[in-house]
Amino acid sequence: MFAAERRQLILEMVRANGAVSLRELARVVQTSEVTVRRDVRALEAEGLLDRRHGGAVLPGGFTRESGFPQKSHLATAEKTAIADLAASLVEEGEAIVVGAGTTTQELARRLARVPGLTVVTNSLLVAQALAHANRVEVVMTGGTLRGSNYALVGSGAEQSLQGLRVSKAFLSGSGLTAERGLSTSNMLSASVDRALVQAAAEVVVLADHTKLGTDTMFQTVPTDLITRLVTDDPPPHDDRAATELQALADQGVQIAVAGASGNPGGEQVPATRRAPLPGPRRGHVALRSGAGLGESAAAERGRVADLRRR
C-alpha cells in the first residue's frame, strides 16, 4: 500500500471513530506502528488530525463521542484483558453498579459466573450480557433510551438511583486525566454516571491506554473519587501514558495493569512490562494481571495490607 493510500485510510478511520490507537491503525493498514506514527505526524502537519497519547484524534482538542458500532471494534484485546482483571475484584454476594460502555459490557459477560451477585445498571448491553445468569440479579434504572450507546439516561435514571448504596461502581468513559479525572462527551451520560458514583463506596474506572491523557467535555468522576484504575500495558513508545499513570498514582489512585495478550483458552497471560509504570504511592499498589487473575479479591487485599504493615 502506497503512503498516500495508507494515510487516506488512517484519516477515514479517525473521522469515523473520533479516536484510534496507533496499534489499531497499524493492524488495519497492515504495517508497523513506526510507519503509522510517521503517517500520523504527516497528517497532523496538514491539520487533518491530532496526535494524542499513543493514537490519533480529530483536531480540536476535545474528541467527539463515537457510536457503539465504532467503539466495539476498538482496542478489543485491551478491553478483554481489562475486563478479566476487573472481574477478579468482584466477590460472591456483592451488590455493584455497572455503567454503560463497551468495556463494561465485556466485564458483565464475566460477572455472569459470580453467584449471589446483584448488578444495578443503566446499560441495556450490560443487562443483556447478564440476562441468562441464573445466580445474578439484575436491576435496571429507569430513564430515556439513548440509542448511540444503548444506555438509559435523564432524570428518570438519576431518580431511580437515589437512596441506593452498593459496594463498588465500575465505570468507563471517553477520557481520563490526573488533573480532571474521568470524562465523557455527552452531558446526559455524564449526569447518570455521577449518580452511579454517589451510590458506591468504591469507584473502579476501566480505561485502556488510549484514553489516558484524553480530556473530553463533561467530567463524570473527579480524580479524588477514583479508588482504582484498571488499564492495559501502554506501548513502549507511549511515555505520556506512563506519565499519566504515575500522576494518577501520586493522587492516590490504585493502578491495576492487565496484559493485552491471551492464550486460545481465554486465560490471560501477564505481559512483560515494556514502559515505566507507577510504583507504590501512599500505601497503594500497582497490580499486574497476574495479581488479579486466578486469585480472589480477598487475597489481593491481604497483600496490600502486608505491604502497608511493612
Automatic annotation (TrEMBL):
Sequence ranges of Low complexity compositional bias: 286-297
A GO term, aspect molecular function: DNA binding
Residue ranges annotated for the HTH deoR-type domain, each copy included: 3-58
Biased composition, class Basic and acidic residues, residue ranges: 298-310
Chain segments carrying region Disordered: 259-310
Keyword presence, Transcription regulation: yes
InterPro entries, sorted: Carb_Metab_HTH_regulators (IPR050313), DeoR-like_C (IPR014036), DeoR_HTH (IPR001034), NagB/RpiA_transferase-like (IPR037171), Tscrpt_reg_HTH_DeoR_CS (IPR018356), WH-like_DNA-bd_sf (IPR036388), WH_DNA-bd_sf (IPR036390)
Top-level taxon: Bacteria
Keywords of this entry: DNA-binding, Transcription, Transcription regulation
Name the UniProt record assigns to this protein: DeoR/GlpR family DNA-binding transcription regulator
Any matching Pfam family: HTH_DeoR
